[in-house]
UniProtKB/TrEMBL annotation:
Taxonomy of the source species: Eukaryota, Viridiplantae, Streptophyta, Embryophyta, Marchantiophyta
Organism expressing this protein natively: Riccia sorocarpa
Family annotation (InterPro entries): Aminotransferase_I/II_large (IPR004839), Ethylene_sulfur-biosynth (IPR050478), NHTrfase_class1_PyrdxlP-BS (IPR004838), PyrdxlP-dep_Trfase (IPR015424), PyrdxlP-dep_Trfase_major (IPR015421), PyrdxlP-dep_Trfase_small (IPR015422)
PROSITE patterns registered for this protein in UniProt: AA_TRANSFER_CLASS_1 (PS00105)
Pfam families reported in the protein's UniProt record: Aminotran_1_2
PANTHER family per record: AMINOTRANSFERASE CLASS I_CLASSII DOMAIN-CONTAINING PROTEIN (PTHR43795:SF39), BIFUNCTIONAL ASPARTATE AMINOTRANSFERASE AND GLUTAMATE/ASPARTATE-PREPHENATE AMINOTRANSFERASE-RELATED (PTHR43795)
Protein name: Aminotransferase class I/classII large domain-containing protein
């Protein structure tokens, strides 16, 4: 949901009577107990009305199955990596996740059954995550576990940062197109608004200094306090890495404006193309930049394909943010049992090294399959070098020129073609017709069916004319 839409929902909620949708045996004439306006605002902005989430629902309720439901919907709208899940299943089936002797003092049953000593992650767990990140980042960055706060997923880490860096009504600038869930993650409870910084297809939707300056000035002129830039690196949904020069430009911008930078690097371990991944952590410690203005988000859900474990983290050089975040993890702490299981996994450095290498190969192979299919279908796309998705212009095939037409095309793809992809407008893309296509969620055979459906649709449109 766009930040302006959220504001309109809040305004409408001012006059909403919360009891009109609730069954009650309250005696007539007695006052009723209402819920908070902010709760009503979330209900008013229910995810079920968003196409992004509607697509999920259709793909779940009418899921494709080659034998049981061959006409069902194939999920290409969820950024989850199942390509290497078999490697983890094999590891867990052949390894004991009980604590090793060196961890028995902190991970025995009595220790994990009681309240933890800290809520922001056991030290042994943070140390192992730091070592894992060192390897994922190619050894060019060393992470300090004392600057790390472990949370129940990257979403919680991002929300904590929104709480710590901004007050309700303040804004974050977000290079667009961006991950649709950011609006929910940032705005629902912290009530911080997101302002897109539009990108253009002519330069592959790159972030520019001019674009940042324009949106920053427009926000300030509206009386809005800009507190941070929020970005994903590698980009979700573009599927590309950022160059060192681009990141230095952004660092210079936040330094001059006196604002923060939140860099979500959860796809750092999923780079499979020829381009090099550069972490913001590699650059921020050098003068003239101020490390306390920069905060890194990471997690295990993407690279290991285990979002259900709910393990994310916030890494910050800002002592005030670090102290506040530690206190806030009281509400978002990772269960000690989960940490124990992952300590066993993260301790197996040999397995993790081979896993990262094999996962990279599988992502590259899957992208090559998708790339060739898109080329056969005649669909323009941004060259993909990272992540589990690509940014493709399906709308060009049918002459999409408006958001309404884009929505109609999405509905046709979802309900008639049988593939769920993410609308560009849900990612705040200003050019209609672009979609995010996630390619790591389904197996090879299902992916082949999905790509065949897309190719047949494009062929049919070219043979029979526009379909909207």
């Amino acid at each position: 949901m766009h930040w302006m839409d959220v504001k309109m929902v809040r305004a409408k909620m001012e006059d909403v009577n919360s009891t009109n949708a609730t069954w009650s045996n309250q005696e007539p004439g007695l006052p009723s107990a209402s819920v908070a306006k902010r709760a009503l605002a979330i209900i008013g902005g229910d995810k079920s009305v968003e196409p992004y989430y509607k697509g999920w629902h259709e793909a779940q309720s009418n899921a494709y199955d080659a034998m049981v439901n061959p006409g069902g919907c194939i999920q290409l709208g969820l950024s989850e990596n199942k390509l290497s899940l078999d490697l983890l299943e094999q590891w867990f089936s052949t390894h004991n996740t009980a604590p090793a002797p060196e961890f028995e003092d902190t991970l025995n049953f009595k220790a994990i059954a009681g309240y933890p000593d800290v809520y922001h992650g056991l030290l042994v767990f943070r140390k192992l995550i730091a070592k894992f990140m060192d390897e994922v980042y190619g050894g060019v960055v060393t992470f300090n576990p004392e600057k790390m706060v472990v949370t129940t997923g990257a979403t919680s880490a991002i929300e904590i940062l929104a709480f710590c860096l901004a007050d309700p009504g303040d804004v974050f600038l977000v290079p667009a197109p961006y991950y649709p869930g950011f609006d929910r993650d940032i705005n629902f409870r912290s009530q911080v608004d997101l302002v897109p910084v539009p990108g253009l297809s002519e330069n592959e939707f790159s972030i520019t200094r001019a674009g940042l300056e324009q949106v920053f000035d427009e926000s300030e002129n509206r009386g809005k306090k800009v507190k941070a830039i929020l970005m994903t690196s590698p980009s979700n949904p573009l599927g590309k890495t950022y160059s060192k020069d681009e990141l230095l430009m952004i660092l210079d911008f936040v330094r001059e404006k006196g604002i923060h930078l939140i860099c979500d690097e959860i796809y750092a371990g999923s780079v499979f193309g020829t381009s090099e991944f550069v972490s913001i952590a590699e650059l921020v410690l050098a003068p003239p930049f101020e490390p306390s203005q920069v905060h890194v988000i990471y997690g295990l859900s993407k690279i290991l394909g285990i979002p259900g474990f709910r393990v994310g983290l916030l890494y910050t050089w800002n002592d005030q943010v670090l102290d506040a975040a530690k206190r806030l993890t009281r509400f978002t702490s990772v269960p000690t049992l989960t940490q124990q299981i992952l300590v066993s996994l993260l301790s197996d450095r040999q397995f993790l090294h081979s896993y990262l290498s094999e996962n990279q190969k599988r992502l590259r192979a899957r992208w090559n399959t998708v790339k060739h299919a898109l080329q056969e279908a005649g669909l323009p796309f941004i060259p993909c070098t990272a992540g589990f998705y690509c940014w493709v212009n399906i709308g060009q095939t049918v002459g999409v020129t408006s958001k309404e037409q884009e929505h109609n095309l999405w509905r046709k793809l979802l309900y008639e073609v049988g593939v769920n992809v993410t609308l560009g407008s849900a990612c705040q893309c200003t050019e209609p017709g672009w979609f995010r296509l996630c390619f790591a969620f389904v197996d090879d055979k299902t992916m082949a069916v999905a790509l065949d459906r897309i190719k047949k649709f494009c062929y049919s449109v070219r043979q029979n004319g526009r379909c909207l």
